[in-house]
Amino acid sequence: MSLSPQDKLSRSPLYRQLAELGAEFAEVSGTACAMSFGEDLEAEVEQANSLAICDLSALPRAGFKGREAQSWPAAQGLVISPDNNMSILQDDGSLVARLADSEVLILSDLACESGLCAAITEAWSPDPDPGVYPVPRADTNCWFMLSGSHADAMFAKICGVDLRPHKFPHLAIAQTSIARLNGIVIRADAGDTLAYHLLTDSASAGFIWTCLLDAMGEWGGVPVGLNALRTLDT
Amino acid sequence: MSAARLDAPAGTLIDRDQPVEFTFEGRRHGGFAGDTIASALMADGELVLSRSFKYHRPRGVLTGCGQDANSLVQVGDQTNVLADRRPIEAGMVVEAQNVFGGLENDYGSWLGFLARFMPVGFYYKAFYKPYSPWRLWEKLFRRLTGLGVVNPDAIHGYYDKQYLFADVAVIGGGPAGMAAALQAAKSGAEVLLIEENKTLGGALNYARFDADPKPAAKRRAELTAKIERTDNIRVLTDALCNGWFTDNWLPLFQGNRMFKLRAAAVIVATGSYEQPMVFRNNDLPGIMMGSAAQRMIHLYGVRPGKRAVVVAANSDGYGVALDLLDAGVDVACVVDPRPAAEPCERQSAVALRGVPVIHETVIAEAVATRGNRGVVGARIARITGEGTLAKTRDRFACDLITVSVGYHGTANLIHHARGAMRYDEAEAAFVIDKLPAHLFAAGSVNSAYSLEAALNDGHLAGWAAAKDAGFEAGRKPTAKAKGAGTMDGGASPNYPWPIFAHPDGKDFVDFDEDLQTADILNAIAEGYDNIELLKRFSTVGMGPSQGRHSSLPSVRIAAKATGRTINETGTTTSRPPVSAETFGHLAGRSFEPVRETALHHRHIEAGAKMMVAGQWMRPEYYGPAESRDANIRAEIMAVRENVGIIDVSTLGGIEVHGPDAAEFLNRIYTFAYIKQPVGRARYVLMTDQTGVITDDGVACRFRDNHFYVTATTGGAGAVYQTMLFYNAQWRLDVCVINSTASYAGVNIAGPKARDVLARLCDDVALDGEALPYMGVREGHVAGIPARIIRIGFVGELGYEIHVPSSQGEALWDALMDAGSEENILPFGIEAQRVLRLEKGHIIINQDTDGLTHPHEADMAWALARKKPYFVGMRSIAIQLANGLERKLVGFILVEPDDPAPKECHLVIRGTEITGRVTSCARSEILNKIIGLAYVAPDQSEIGKRFEIKIEQGRMITAEVVALPFYDPDGKRQEM
Question: What is this structure's pTM?
């Protein structure tokens, strides 16, 4: 039976919209996450290969900002790109995005097996002053994955950056405007499927969700559950 | 099939297997899928499409491709639809615009008889004096003018936008454009080829380049096939490029979508506008450009008339004559204004078919049918000089006149890009003089008039654009001659003076504005002899056609009348858009970001009336609208006597970390923070460099090196940016993080607030000693990690609780549940406004304005005296030294039963305005009207009285009282 999002203290800002669409929820990292929309996983995987959106707001993420934003995480064992606006996949499947000299973003793997976000958050201490400070990404941003062969064309309806795969390489980052919201787009293909992470203001989650579904409609894009993405990713 | 329909292969765009019915002016008409409204009507024998703007003269097809305003009609709710571009659809309802009593019998046509009383610019000199009849004139003009009827209840269409990217964008899919695209693509560049019509080919689709029509069709097919085979050329047809903007940003309209294209290099291959000739009655239905007739024949399979007189000042005109003959039109004669010379191939072919060709002759006058609904004949005359004709006229019966006297380059985009044009006497046209970087031109817009010249020009432009975009373009194609002297027949295709004024007028220079030759000359005679003044006084070129056909003749007339050259006369500025664009296209999906707190749905479920507060939605009050005031009163009293809860998530939250955090706040805000103890909150007041108050909040010190600072709902973003701006200069060791959306916040306030909170909070002692007023703690509430701030904006015992926003809803639920025993009540913005007013707390941007400094607002207490610097410090000192001009005070009404003044009601002393009301409300707990107002400094003493002017000029008296109004000792908030 599906978990009710209101049974957990922590809730995705979109749980109502997902429930209305028939999402089946399960606990992921203390929050109810939409795992599927119906029984047909194969159909959802096929959808994810064409054009789909998945709410990843339940998954762990962390951010750090400050003058030591590169050195401190590296000292904790993270592998960080030497270039701004590039990310690197860690051995455990999590993704470390270098947003600027003074800021990194860490996204959990889709399977939520890595534990990196929790570990690094635990490792941080304010004393002595480390020169790097936590950014509450888990609540500042809502987080989506947009996947499928039409994903770049869909983005072109709401974003002025050229995200076409031959112009925007795997693991590249764009910090830009998405439907008039500040957003972070990271290309992170799931297996052979074109895919992008999108993080925007959590208070605007309802607005951006509506914009994305509207933009996706042209290609029949719809939400899929986390199970479908996990299948693509393996 | 109607008599005017031609058999296939004529009509390349129509599908004869799909008949379509529609109505025009209430009458049923039929056509085929692919027909435009104009072509279907012409096939049905309907020549009149519209009535002109001023004289309501009948108008018909002129260009046949949407380049003129004759074809503007209304389709359903859509106004100003181009009938010669809009395809017919089953059931479509088409109506004329700007008519009174119908298109057929438009009463407005009587205005034509009053033409002598309506000279150019007459409206500047009439109607404004005397003033009294103006109301009548205005009503009349609103009835008489305007194009189309807007339906304010029309359902919005679905429009959207999409970004596009290309290395090389080619605007125009004619021969030059296609050649350019193919050449550019050879280098590997991503090429986008944009064509405004449904198919590629441009003039290759309808024009007659040779005596034999087959080579053009073959060339078109070859080029199109090559393009289809080229993977790196993307073609957009039925797509209009409507402007050029900085850095090659181009808006393209296709259907209901606006593409926003950015290209490294742009090639303008937009062709030319064929030009009309000026003669008496040159505006009648049945008089059209030669290319219009060819479009009707070839694209839509419509014979445009039965018997034609063809005006041909270039070889293309003879091609028109050949096409008319092939379509079964009887060509009475060809009049060619040029002297006889060695005939071109097409002219010879015309002569071979027995059509008389009369040189050095033009049409002096078209003979109209009754009601000017068409043409019955043409009177021709020999040219005796520039613009002058012999008196003897020969008359030819005809129902169709085609005009081919030259072209005007479609150089709009080049003008937008600030390309330079100059008039070339040999070509008798404006030619490109200089192009800006990354912009190229090809084809007839670049003086390449013949087909071979256009193709060659396209290759050259494609090569250059690809190179410019950074690609290896290979060897440069060989340039061939173009321009005057290279056309078939050895001359420019542009006749230098196709203007033959008639003493009886109706010789139109501007069809849109019904401007005749005399109108232009009269405007110049009145002193408007500069082209910019001439345009604005006469309105030439200001109609929907935007000067496509009036610019060249009006410049020629103006140059001659003022004794200047055409280059000295110049042209007016061409700006985007190229063609009319809808608001729908510009709006697209209308992204208007809305921010909702984590508690938003709980407010809705509790029956809140939501209101917009900046980008956020906040509850104004709870309960039905009919009992709004009672609801708000109940919320206020709940806070004063019991316990209430309000969502404060929208207040900004900014983390300031680092060894210099306290120093940073000390400089940013007016108060003192270096010695602020850990575990305490302190008021923050922000001023800008001019000393004006811009924001406020509280700074909570959680650690020596960590402050959590709140801001106003509308100011959080600006506060964050201000902090980054200043620290970019100061380089203090701080890290500033905007965490506004990260936290959901509630303020639980009222005498029972502690009791409620204590049920949920195990790890933070809440009593007055452990957590005094303005204390801050970190702990847990209902198991949720929380920041607890003891604060009193509303003047009661209160706690702001900030939790991770993902857990905000859970917090709200827990507090509502814990407070159910006390009947905890959510309260909204309106209740909060009254509560804080009772405490005399100001609201930034309500009780302050763009000039308020702290001394005016009685906030001197928030200025630290001993610190060396804060932003705005010096300005505030200067303002104080200069003396106050006003002061914010609290007031009550002397007569308790007087109505409450509204915000911005003025404080009046004699004839002087000395201030205004900023906040005012009825206080239930105090049982009186209270408010804040700016008054003159000498009116600000406690007990002083002043006058407020309210509605209908009534004056009421207020008295200055001490603040706060309620609980002056602060005992209730500090318990």
Answer: 0.90
